[in-house]
Design goal:
The chain is an all-alpha fold. Helix content is 60%, strand content 0%. Helix 7 runs antiparallel to helix 8 (194-223) and helix 7 runs antiparallel to helix 11 (268-279). It is an enzyme of class 1 (oxidoreductase).
Length: 284
Amino acid sequence: MASLTPISQSQSLFNKTRCPPKSLTSPNLGSDFLLKKSSVSIPRMTTRVPMKAAGVVSATTVEKAKKRYPGESKGFVEEMRFVAMKLHTKDQAKEGEKEVKEPQERPVAKWEPTVDGYLKFLVDSKLVYDTLEGIVEKAPFPSYSEFRNTGLERSAKLAKDLEWFKEQGHVIPEPSAPGVTYAEYLKELSEKDPQAFLCHFYNIYFAHSAGGRMIGKKVAEMILDKKELEFYKWDGELPQLLQNVREKLNKVAQSWTREEKNHCLEETEKSFKHSGEILRLILS
């Protein structure tokens, strides 16, 4: 081990530093000399950011840049589902946050549906499904062709139901404003905004397979002597049909930027608005 400087020598050195010889303070020596000597004998202090701390800041910045969206780890369809659930009421879904404001948002058990109103709902719904299926068939964007013949199509089923009502002596009405307005909106979106269009595609088909089925069953009990319409029947196993479409939607969304995905999610509220106006026809 290297020897330490004796305390007495250290004290002597300290005194010499504090009290320089008179020769060093002589008027013959300028201030420049003293400044130079001082800069040599007193080390300069610097402040450095430790490399470890700098790494923490960098990691935090990266983490913020990689913000995870609810459901993102399971695929984009799960993100859409999460947003959609928030727009339900508590009675409609346990994840719902929306307050009940419209008649159709009340529990179905409190509804007072009419046959005429239900016919309007079915007619307008058919117009919307005719429009969706026609757009997918035409495919103004190549990605739409992924959603042909999924087994979720409803137009042909609705045609059978309307024919049944006609056989029962009911007059089939013309499509009304809610259905016409929504169909036109879907046509416009499909030509210029594929992300927004596919948001509506997802919400229309998936909502009907869940809450729509429950509504159909309750309404049939109230006014149709429990008649099960074709609208609520699928050829094949519905869970598997839905899973196939989920996979296709996730595949298409993989090529979207985060901004395009967010734009799709933001369209959910408009989808609910238009569908809600059609659903309200049941109570008219």
